[in-house]
Design goal:
Blueprint lengths: L6 H9 L5 E6 L6 H9 L5 E6 L5 H4 L1 H13 L6 H16 L13
Parallel strand pairs: 1-2
């Protein structure tokens, strides 16, 4: 599990994410989550951190508000180039098909 990793490794994983990211956590969840979430998002405007009503499984406790919050985040993102979107879908299909090509590097389509 990701929480079994040393803090440096967790932060390295987060720093490898280059796209806009919304990190939601339940306000009544584990006490370490707010500080951890703020730390991994610090200094990167692409990362948004927000506490939402509920516990650890807030998305099951509050499905509609959770979905609405995610939708607002996605709607605020700039449009994606249709050719790039098609290329990413192709890569995903190749990965799912397991057709002997192995893992395809998604950066190759960027």
């Amino acid at each position: 599990a990701v929480w079994d990793l040393p803090q440096e490794d967790i932060e390295a994983l987060w720093s490898a994410i280059e796209c806009p990211t919304l990190l939601l956590y339940g306000a009544d969840s584990y006490p370490f989550l707010p500080a951890t979430a703020r730390r991994v998002a610090a200094g990167d405007r692409r990362r948004q951190v927000e506490a939402v009503a509920g516990g650890h499984c807030f998305m099951m406790e509050q499905p509609q508000p959770t979905a609405e919050r995610i939708r607002r985040f996605l709607d605020a993102l700039p449009p994606v180039d249709p050719q790039r979107r098609a290329a990413v879908r192709l890569v995903e299909r190749l990965e799912q098909a397991g057709d002997g090509l192995g893992r395809v590097d998604k950066q190759a389509v960027d």
